[in-house]
Every structure is written in structure tokens, then in C-alpha cells.
Amino acid sequence: MRSPERVVAALRARRELWEPSPGLVGLRGDAAVLRDRIACEIASLTRSLADEVWHVPPGLPLGTLARADYFLSFPQWLTAASHLGGATADLETVARAADPASSARGALVASDVALAPAVCYHVYAELAGQKLSRPVRVSAECTCWRHEAPRFSALIRDWSFTMREAVCVGTPQEADAFQRAGAAAVRTLAERLGLSTATVHAEDPFFLPTGRGRALLQRLKALKHELVIEPPGAPPIAIASFNHHERFFGDAFGISIADGTAASSACVAFGIERWLLAFLVAHGPSARDWPEVREATDPTDTHDVSEVMAGSAAIATRAERS
Amino acid sequence: MRSPERVVAALRARRELWEPSPGLVGLRGDAAVLRDRIACEIASLTRSLADEVWHVPPGLPLGTLARADYFLSFPQWLTAASHLGGATADLETVARAADPASSARGALVASDVALAPAVCYHVYAELAGQKLSRPVRVSAECTCWRHEAPRFSALIRDWSFTMREAVCVGTPQEADAFQRAGAAAVRTLAERLGLSTATVHAEDPFFLPTGRGRALLQRLKALKHELVIEPPGAPPIAIASFNHHERFFGDAFGISIADGTAASSACVAFGIERWLLAFLVAHGPSARDWPEVREATDPTDTHDVSEVMAGSAAIATRAERS
After folding, report:
1. ipTM of predicted complex
2. Is residue A108 part of a domain?
3. What span, in angstroms and rounded, lies between the C-alpha atoms of B189 and B304?
4. How confident is the model at residue A56 (pLDDT cuts 50, 70, 90)?
5. Burial grade of B289 (CB within 10 A; 0-12, 13-18, 19 or more)
6. CA–CA separation, A134 vs A177, rounded Å?
7. Domain containing residue A200: CATH number
8. What digits encode the pLDDT tens for the residues A240-261?
């Protein structure tokens, strides 16, 4: 395994990775093609765990996060959408300013919309108040934002990143089975990609001291696991997490199951850019050292294999042209 | 053609479309599967016009927009990322507030980061200061934000939407040829999807009166075209635009070509959700009425065909289960 710093430095030197602003990462070249291959593999995995694909928007009401106790748990990460007021005179002031960027920054108005810190809040919010006669199992991807400045680190801890989740809302047994199936599928994918990983018990970094009781419970009841890579000279990096929320979100959003009790939920979450990093840490930053990704055995996965082939073709095309 | 309002109302009634907040749209069910099919077709098209795929982040510096004269042109749409300050006492105040959503909203701090209003600014910014020995042709997709409240209209004018662009930076001739090839490819795709469209001369809605001169020039010099649908009882809706910027961005970002002059640029831009709407307006909101999408003839497009097949399989699975 290479060190994450060296891998990122190599991409930066090839101009395949750049940061327009701290915590925001762009990719091009082989790294961008590889990112697509990996994102396809992960999409295929979450679809195999789910009954439906959702498209969720990149923002949600601050009130939805409050309902999920987000501000008790992770206020430090909150990122929200703001905009300029609509008054023509104010817009003209910005437009005609000597330094319009500063002028605009000073004139921004807060909104009620948070940028999503995770995908699954959308699922609980959309199911709010419903009685489920069968489990809801969803695959969805979303651009997420967590303001972890000044600890930003490209591909490891970005302000904005891509999260894909498979989410299950149903009976306790259905949530259990989903979490177990998810963990097994993720380990299989990690092996297929040649990643050396470990599964560890984990807890969320709850902000308030009262959250520490919840963190302790997560550990004692083994509600949260993470799949981590352990690169040399760096702390472990979680590339996926398997979370059982028991009835927490069912209670918070008034979602019930057939017997009238609150629904249980579980989710399997992937950080796409961290999987890219894990692959590069395992196989190096040069495309010539990357193994072919083995074909998925599930026949419904053929489109992902072709995506991979299309990705390779794109690399070839690039190489020919350069 | 159906009216956009009736199509959106039908999706809403089936709970396949919902708005967590004004201007933010979620999709599930057949509509979500169809959105994926269409997004794949458009991705394939932009890749066929480009030499490379980029992944651009969803935010960029306000200063980059200023460099592109964005605040002279479209300040009314600006959306930016804000966050809470890092001081523990302030975070505790939010966490312990009786109404943490309001408390958080009141404590938000503006940042220097705009949420991208379009994909192509990223391309000019990354190429800034470079001398190009050959054209750069990029395919990229990005979550974009334009604050068009109170005119939000689901799938037509959302605060947040998905834009895919093919962008060319090079000589005037290369930009010309790119814009022409893009327009032809887009019309072919629209026909293949059974959409009834028209190509019209267009201009950007520049904010300042001084921008009106630029708008007039856009029309006189035919620099901007749009592919529109013209549904009954509704204004035309642009689903793609073909833009020739001449040397505007080359000048603004110091990008030059071999002869030392400023680079020209052109882009072809797609609003994915508007293509979904156009398909539904043409074929109706019920999946049973949707035509099969013909196979792409380009053999490198096979992955899209399989995506479509996977999409159909997903619909079948859903129907069986329900």
C-alpha cells in the first residue's frame, strides 16, 4: 500500500487532480475514468441490495435535519445554501461593485435549505408518516457537503463529496438482514477490486456530551461498522459504513410497520472518492499498474462491465491522442 | 404533446415526484428509471463530442465567477455555500436551541464558494493561463444551482438541477466545428427519443442594461441557439443550448492558442431534468406508453443500451413486486 499523500501528490503533479477551492476536488484523465468505473461498481452493488432507485436532490430543509436530531449530533459539519436577495437595487450594487465577489459574499441571505450531509435523510423524510406493509429498500446517490475545515484532505476529507447509499426501512429483522447482506456484498467488492480492508466497530463523532451516551451504545450494541483501509503512515480511512439505526428514524419521522410500531432502518454508505483513493493506494497512481476489474457474476450487472470496458476504451483513446 | 403541468401532476399523484423544499425535486419509481436512461443517452452524446471526461466539484470560488463577469450577467441566480462557525460555544448554542433549524439559519457564515451555476466555468478556470497546442474537448456533469425563486416549476425551473456539458476550447474553427457537431448530435438524439423540437436563436438573460448589448450581439452573430420543445398552453422550454463564446472566456482566463491569441470556446449544455420532462410531455407520464429507445449505432455506446435494458428490468422487477 502507498501512502495517501504520495498518491494524491502524483495525481496533482499529472494535473489529474486539482482543488478550485479548499475541500473541492476536480478530476480528469485516467483518475476521472477510474472514478467512473468504481462509481459504477458501487452503484451496481447498492442496486443489488435495493428494490428501487431514487434520485434525491442535493438539498433538504434545515427542519428535516432538526427532526433527525442532526444539530445535536453533527452541527459542526452543517453546510447550507444561501443566495442574493431579489431586490434589483441590491443586485445592481453587486453587479457594479469594484470587487463583485466580495460584494456578493457580503450580501448573501441565508435560506432554509441545507446541503445534504448524507443521502438517507431524504428517504426518511419522504416516508414520514407512512405505515409500511413491506420494506422499502432504496439505492440513491447524492452530492454531500460536510464542512470539516481546516481538516480538508483531498479524496479523504473533502467539503463536498459523492455518497451512495443503500437504505432499508422495515421491520427489525429486515433491517438486520439488510445490514448483514450489505456488509457481505461490500467485502466481496473490496476483494474484487484488490483492496486490503478490515471491518471495525465504529461510532459517530457526536458533538454534544449527551451524544457520547449514544456513541457508547453504538459500540456496545455493535450498531455501526466501518470498512477501513489502513495505509502506512496514516490513520485508517473508512470507505464504507454499515449502520443499524434501530427505531431512531422510524420514531423521528413517524414511519411505522404493519404491527403499528416504529419502523427500523439500516443503511450501507459509500464515499466514492475514498474508494478511488483506496484503489490508488492499493495499486498505485499509474493506470498501467491497475488490474482489470473482474466481471461481475450477476448477469444483471452486464451494463457495469460494459461501462468498465468503455472506460478502458476512453483511456486508450486518450493515450492514442497524446 | 401533453402540458407540462399535467405530466408533473401525474408524477406527483403517483408519488414519483416530490419537493422536499421549493425548487428541489426528488424522483422515484418509473420516473427515476427513465431519468437514468435519458442521462445515459446524454452522457454518451457528450462523450462522443469530447476527448476526455472530467469530474468537476459542485462548487467554485466566487472569484472565478467574477473573472467570468458572472455578476454583471446573472447575479440574480447566485447560490453559495455557507456554514456554521467553528467556535464550540456557538455550535453548542445551535445544538441546544429549542428551534435548532432557526438557530442554525441565524448563525450561518458566508463562504467564498458559489454553488456552480453551470459546468463550463470549471473548464476555463482549470485551463487558466495555459497555451493550448490542441483543442481541449471535455464532457462533464455537475449539480447546478440557480435561484430563480419565485418562478420555480418542477422539472422546468428548479433551484437545483443536473447539467451535462460538452465544452471545447481551441481555435475559432475548432469551436465552430464543435458547436455545429454538437447541434447535429443533439437533434439526432431528440429524434431518436421521439421528441418534437425546434432550434431557435437565443440570447442570455443578462441582468445589467450594459448586458443588453451583448444579448443583441448574441442574436446578430447567432452565437447562441437553443433546442426547445413547444408544449401546448405553455411557453417554449429550452432543453439544450449551443453556445459560441468567441474569445470571451479565453480572454477572461488568459487561455491562448498556438498563435498566441486568446482561445475561442463553445459549449453544448443539457438540462437533464428538462429532457425527462420533454420525454414525458411527448409520450405521457405512464411507463406503458413509453417507446423503447432505439439502440445507439456507435458500438462504443453498448453500455448505454445495456443501461436501458437494466432500466427496463428494474421496471419489470418493480411491477412484479407491487
Report:
1. 0.90
2. no
3. 13
4. very high
5. exposed
6. 14
7. 3.30.930.10
8. 999 999 999 999 999 999 999 9
Assess contact for B30 and B312: CB atoms under 8 A: no
CA atoms of B314 and A119, how far apart (whole Å): 21
DSSP three-state, residue A159:
coil
Where is B319: in which H helix or E strand? helix B302-321
On whether both B108 and B125 belong to a single domain, the answer is no
Residue ranges of B 81-100 with Cβ closer than 8 A to chain A:
81-84, 86, 91-92, 94-97, 99-100
Chain A residue with the nearest C-alpha to that of B24: A57
Interchain CB contact of A55 with B (< 8 Å): yes
Q: Tell me B132's DSSP state.
A: E
Q: Evaluate the CA torsion angle B96, B98, B101, B103 in order and state its sign.
A: negative
What distance lies between CA B241 and its chain's CA centroid?
10
Q: pTM of the predicted model, to two decimals?
A: 0.90
Is the domain of B34 the same as that of B50? yes
Helix (H) or strand (E) holding B46: helix B29-49
Whether B138 and B238 map to the same domain: the answer is yes
What distance in Å separates the CA atoms of residue B172 and residue B180, rounded to the nearest whole number?
12
**Is B235 in the same domain as B286?**
yes
3-state secondary structure of B143: strand
- Banded pLDDT at B68 (limits 50, 70, 90): very high
**Which amino acid is present at B57?**
P
Nearest residue, CB atoms, A76 vs list B91, B306, B317:
B91
Q: How far is CA B52 from CA A31, B47, B135, B191, in A?
A: 11, 7, 11, 26
The parent domain of residue B107 ranges over 83-112
Cβ atoms of B108 and B82 within 8 Å: the answer is yes
In single-letter form, the type of residue at position A146 comes to R
CA distance to partner chain A, nearest, from residue B233 (Å): 28
pLDDT in tens, A225-239: 999 999 988 899 999
Residue-wise pLDDT tens digits, B154-206: 999 999 999 999 999 999 999 999 999 999 999 999 999 999 999 999 988 88
CB-count exposure of residue A287 (10 Å: 0-12, 13-18, 19+):
middle
DSSP readout, A21-32?
A: ETTEEEE-HHHH
Q: Give Cα separations from A191 to A33, A195, A282, A309 (angstroms).
A: 20, 6, 11, 20
Which regions of B220-263 does DSSP assign to beta strands (E)? 224-229, 237-246, 256-257
CB pair distance less than 8 Å for A66 and B101: yes
Distance CA A24, CA A6 (A): 19
| Strand A108-115 relative to strand A131-132, pairing | unpaired
Q: Which residues pair with A169 in a beta bridge?
A: A136, A265
